Amino acid sequence: MGSSWCKIILKNETPYTWHYSGSHVYDPFPNISYTERKESGTLKAREEKEYWPDRNGKLCMFILKYGDHQHNSFSYAYSGYQHTTFTIRESLDRSVIELHCSTHSVVETCPNYAKKEKDQQRREEEQRRQERQERERRIEEEISKETEEARRSLTEAKLNLSPSLREQEGHRQCTHVLQQVMGDHETVIERDEVQENLPTYCELVKLQKRYDNVMDPGKYSILGGARPEKKIISQDYRDAIAPMTETDYIIAQLYDLGYVATYKDVRNTILSGRYAVEADHIIPKDTLRKALVHRDLEKLKSKNSQLYALVTSIQSDPNGRCHLVMQVLYQHHRTALTTGNCMEAKRCRALLADTLVSGNAEKMLKQAMIMANPVSSQKLRDKAGLINRSSIGKHQDFSENGTNCYYKAGFMNVFSEYLNIGIIDQNQHTRLKSWAKENRHQDINTEEFREIETIVGGQQGEKSRKQVRGNMLGPQTHQSP
Q1: Which domain holds residue 347?
Q2: Looking at the 3D structure of the chain, how many domains does it have?
Q3: How far is it between the farthest Cα atoms of the chain?
Q4: Of 52 and 158, the one with more pLDDT
């Protein structure tokens, strides 16, 4: 009796990976000695393979598994009397995967797992979108109700104003005014009047600000002293804060968390109250001062002229009024690795200066995002065994997820601003946005994270463990070092 083997050809016409194996079911010649051939392997997308599984006359079993699945997708019994071709392909409507055998007319099928997974992802994305819309709808309804109540309160307050305040009507054009659009008419409130009647107007101002940010960004502006600023909410910002809880979402909208502008513009538009929010310089002033005296500064001029201009601007603008800042919660700013006089903060600002002078703006912004984010900052301190940074501040219950959301949203705007002024190019901008969206700033295995970890956990870190926490308190408009 012969001992030749029949060839098996495998054709994968799908874009998916399959794992195959062969085995025998019945041996027609059990008493004849021979060497049995078994085959197993991986069939990549659009790949074709062939093998000789066993001799003629043997009943064989061909098994296929999809991707990383543990169960069999196909188990196909066939005769070993002749060459056989197995072809894997999608059905016309892509709902199932078909296994065709050249020696049999029966076509086996199994679910198209990849399509099912994608369909499930689409359903989940659609569900999240609908939930976000429903959440925004509930917020709008709540704000509409509260706005109506606030309008009535405002009308009553205006009727009860003291005569001395009404006598100042003729001087309104000479003072700062807050323009607030309500319904079909405009009510103009004198800034001094607001300050003298805070119990009446404070909640109204905050409420209207919440409503405007949700319904129509830039609906109001503060005139005088600075040019009007219209805050545009980008789609990147909306996407980044979408996973927030409803409570975090309202706070983020109320205080413009993640808003990026120059320090002077943020100071002119902030309406916050003590220990609520602060402006965090994207690149700390201390970092720019260290870069200004760096021995390799002149080399930066030819590598990145706009980055060089940013460094030298600290000479004419020592307080960083024209530098970019991000509006963040008070306690989050005080937790950032770049804030304060502790040893790790000084070392981090020095590392940022070295990266800046090297001309690698992309790496500089990655490091800045890790150091500014209070979640990644605390993670680095924990790994180094340093004391926890804590401070007073409103909204202490703001969640870690919400914090990551608005910091990510803010740095999306930072990347765009640095693209606009020419510090990074379009390719760097695209890579940085992907880096942030993938939460790489929280990844302890990135080059930037490990480098900062080395700095924070240095020998001089022991001094920081003894740092007095009282140094973390300060005025409500505290600037970055």
Answers
A1: 233-481
A2: 3
A3: 119
A4: 52
Whether the per-residue pLDDT at 68 is higher than 60: the answer is yes
Domain end (from 61, 83, 111): 111
The Cα 175–Cα 396 span in angstroms is 36
3-class DSSP assignment, residue 192: helix
The radius of gyration of the chain from alpha carbons, rounded to an integer in Å, stands at 33
Does residue 2 fall inside a structural domain?
Answer: no
Pair 51, 8: CB distance under 8 Å: yes
CA distance 312 to 331: 30
Cβ neighbours, 10 Å, residue 340: 23
Determine contact, residues 233/295, Cβ cutoff 8 Å: no
Q: How far apart are CA 33 and CA 150, in angstroms?
A: 95
This prediction has a pTM of 0.52
Strand 84-90 to 8-12 pairing: parallel
Contact residues for 197 (Cβ-Cβ < 8 A; gap 6+) = 157, 161
Burial class (CB in 10 A: 0-12, 13-18, 19+), 440: middle
pLDDT per residue over 276-320, tens digit each?
888 899 999 999 999 999 999 999 989 999 999 999 999 999 988
Q: In this structure, are 211 and 276 located in the same domain?
A: no
Residues 239 and 221 in one domain: no
The C-alpha torsion from 160 through 165 and 168 to 170, rounded to 10°, is -10
